[in-house]
Every structure is written in structure tokens, then in C-alpha cells.
Amino acid sequence: MSLAGAQSKLAVAIDEDGRICIPMNGSPSTHILKPESPSLSGSVQNEAFCLTLAKRMQIPTPAVTTGQAGKRAFLLVKRYDRINAGGRWRRLHQEDYCQALGKPPSAKYEANQTGICGPTLKDMFELTRRHISATGIVHLLDMVVVNVLVCNTDAHAKNYSIMIHAGGASLAPMYDVMCGEVWENVTKSLAQKIAGESRGDYLKGSHWRRFAGECGLNPKQVIDRVGGLAKLAIAEAEAAASEVATMPAGPHLILDQTRQAIERRAHEILAQLQELEDKRNSKAFDDEVALCGEEVP
């Protein structure tokens, strides 16, 4: 397995006949192949579901499918940093946010043991604001929110990237997304905190408002976007699960568990946002009564 990361993965090329090949002599790969992790049963269907759901939510993602080699399933992800130009595959330049912020790969987590503070979401939004259009800010926000919605606790700074081209820079599609909620041996803490909170299931509307302020975003627009994406996740979850079940590797027990975990998270977030709205409405009512000179109980 030739690529770095917690999961085993291999850079491969798909030829004209659809065969999976190993690139030789510096030839560019076209896809990344991830076999099922022995310690994370159903990891293939889990990641396929998360990326398929994100795609159905209109989040840019690479094309994915699954496959079966003997008794082992695998995920096949088309590389977004490759282009076929005149029948020849060429590499496109990208930098993940660790590289772009001058941090070593070992400091990819906000909290780590290197002695170097890893990139925070504030750092990432500031960098994006300096080098990418306003559309990039929206795309980055969407990715952060979706990672929380799908319970992806491994969304560190090397799992967000920037495409660099002659005309400037743009945000890369979303990749390496899995729901950690379905496995007991996976941390439940986020790789990057939201307004100081490291648990996605503890996030309240007030956290999203503080996060917006820290990252230079409009709090109301952030709250509205979080709620809109949560509703989209619920609406598209069943269709995404059906789509993954029909891929070559077939369904897996983890698929339904992943869907249910994400639906629970989305409902939790919507309830927490509603609680914030209720508090705001209650305060507005109390202020109105006070202005009328009446006693506020």
C-alpha cells in the first residue's frame, strides 16, 4: 500500500478496458483503492455512503464505487487531481491545509503530541479568505458542517485541500469521509473543535454562532446553512443507502447503522438549533413586554 494515512490505500490506474492496474515508471494514477479495514468492519460501505450522501446534498465529491476482490471489499475513488488531456493523464497541483499553512503532516490534528499547534478551523477560513473566492468560503463551511453531520471525527487539516491552477486557487472536493459513530474503537471527538467543543453530539446553536464569529462568518447565515444541510441529510439518507447497496460490493450491516447514526445526528442538530431559536424568541418577547412597562415574570 503506497499512500500515507490511517487507512491502507493504493494508487491505481483504470485502463480503457476498465481493468485496475499499477502505474509504472512514474505514470500518474487515476484512482485510489481502499480495501476494507480489518479493524473497521464495513468501512467500504461506510465511506461510500458518506460520500454518496454528500454528493446528493450537492457537495462536490469525487466519483466513488465499490468492488470485491475475493472475500475482501474495496472502495474505488476517482482522483480529482488528475485530468485526461488528449488521451494522456496529467497531474493537477493541490495542497492540503497542513501544507498550505506550513504545518508538518504530524500536526494535522488541532490537538496532537508534536508540540506544534495543528491548524484550527479559524486558520483554515482565514487562509481561504486570502486566496480563494467567496464561493470557496461557502464550500469550506459546507464541508465542515457535513463532517459534523456524518459524525466524521477524522476530518483533520490534511483531509481538506486546495487546488492550485494558473487562474488562482479553488477548494478541492470533499474526500476521506467516514462515520465514526458506528464503531466502538473510534474516537467520538472531532479532529477540529467548533467554538471550543470537541464533541459533535454536544454542539448547540450557540456553538455555531460563536464559530461563525471566530471565523469571520455571518452567524445567521451559518445557522441557516447548518439547519438546511441537516434537513438535506435526512431527506437524502435512504436514497444514498440504496445507491451504495447496488454498487458491486453490495450492502453491509454497517450501511443501515451508518444511515441511522447520521439521521440521529441531523435530528439532534435541528433540535439544538430550534432550542436557540426558541430562546431568542423568548428574549425578544421579554424585551417587548419590558418596553411596555409590564413586569416580566
How would you describe what is shown here?
The protein is an alpha+beta fold. The protein has one domain (10-291). The protein is 41% helix and 18% strand. It contains 7 helices and 12 strands. It has helices at 43-56, 97-100, 121-131, 134-149, 205-214, 219-245, 253-291; strands spanning 10-14, 20-21, 31-35, 64-69, 72-78, 82-85, 88-91, 94-96, 161-165, 168-171, 189-194, 197-199. A 5-stranded antiparallel β-sheet has the order 2-1-3-5-4, with helices on one face. It has a 3-stranded antiparallel β-sheet with strand order 8-9-10. A two-stranded antiparallel ribbon has the order 6-7. Strand 4 and strand 5 (72-78) form a beta hairpin. Helix 5 packs across helix 6 (219-245) and helix 6 (219-245) packs antiparallel against helix 7. The longest helix has 39 residues, at 253-291. The relative contact order is 0.14. The mean pLDDT is 92.
> What is the residue-averaged pLDDT?
92
Percent range of helical residues: 40-55%
Q: What is the number of helices?
A: 7
Overall geometric form: globular
Class derived from helix and strand content: alpha+beta
Instruction: Calculate the terminal CA-CA distance, rounded to whole Å.
Output: 66 Å
Count of structural domains: 1
Strand order of the largest sheet: 2-1-3-5-4
Low-confidence stretches: none
What is the rounded Rg? 21 Å
Order of SSEs: EEEHEEEEEHHHEEEEHHH
Percentage beta strand: 15-25%
Number of strands: 12
The largest pleated sheet is described as: 5 strands, antiparallel
